[in-house]
Design goal:
With 251 residues, this protein is mainly β. It contains one helix and 17 strands. Strand 2 and strand 3 form a beta hairpin.
Length: 251
């Protein structure tokens, strides 16, 4: 890490900061709180000294908060997420979210956020540190931010290029290209297996995710998948994958 913490590090740190900062939400969580199924935008401004180099960070971030099909709430930054514990209009986590760059990573933890009464902003705090050059815990600090809600004007476009890779006798990975409109809060993954008469939602992931691993499958069985982008306005058409038959278990 030489002149600046750029690229994924800045993006990841700023995005997470954005999540903790504040914003309004487009969906409704427990008690009617509009914190969830939402996308937020923020700006992080801070100075970080790492290995003798001082970096001024002044970058935009985006993140999403999504309730998945199991009722679990997650804060997503890019393709990484942490589980949020929700109480009324407040949410927090002690999990560490690590966003990795070429030769460094930024670790964010102790996230605590609160939604305003009119669901128009989020205030919050979090701690962070940087790992770089073989050293851990560099440039520790804490930040508080105020994010703004990203309000979509239309339903998002559908994701494209859905493929199945790395199949085993028990699992496979879905890959897709994120939707082009930039309006998505996240993606819904649906599956239809041998015992299903229609597609069943199995997961929701953030708008920066472009892959999902399904690890609860049966060997020698055929599965069909859909990936659908969504926001508060609506859902896209589905990106369809061809049917996939898993191989038998290894001998």
């Amino acid at each position: 890490m030489k002149k600046k913490l750029s690229g994924l590090l800045i993006l990841g740190l700023f995005t997470l900061l954005s999540a903790c900062g504040g914003g309004s939400s487009s969906g409704n969580g427990p008690g009617g709180v509009g914190l969830f199924e939402s996308r937020w935008s923020d700006q992080i401004v801070t100075t970080c000294s790492v290995s003798g180099f001082t970096t001024n960070i002044d970058e935009p971030l985006q993140y999403s908060i999504i309730e998945d099909s199991s009722g679990t709430f997650r804060l997503w930054v890019g393709d990484s997420s942490v589980i949020l514990t929700v109480s009324g209009s407040n949410a927090s986590t002690s999990e560490t979210l690590s966003i990795t760059g070429t030769s460094y990573s930024v670790n964010v933890t102790d996230i605590s956020i609160a939604l305003s009464e009119d669901n128009s902003s989020i205030s919050g705090t979090f701690n962070y540190s940087v790992d770089a050059n073989g050293l851990t815990g560099l440039c520790p600090g804490s930040l508080s931010l105020a994010s703004s809600r990203v309000t979509p004007s239309t339903a998002p476009a559908e994701p494209t290029g859905l493929t199945v890779v790395n199949p085993t006798d028990r699992s496979l990975e879905l890959n897709w290209t994120t939707e082009a409109s930039g309006e998505a809060v996240g993606y819904i993954i649906k599956r239809m297996g041998p015992a299903d008469s229609d597609y069943v939602e199995i997961a929701r992931v953030g708008n920066g995710a472009a892959a999902y691993i399904d690890g609860s499958l049966n060997s020698k069985s055929t599965y069909y998948y859909q990936v659908i982008s969504f926001n508060s306005v609506g859902q896209s058409a589905a990106a369809l994958a061809l049917d996939t038959t898993l191989p038998p278990p290894p001998i």
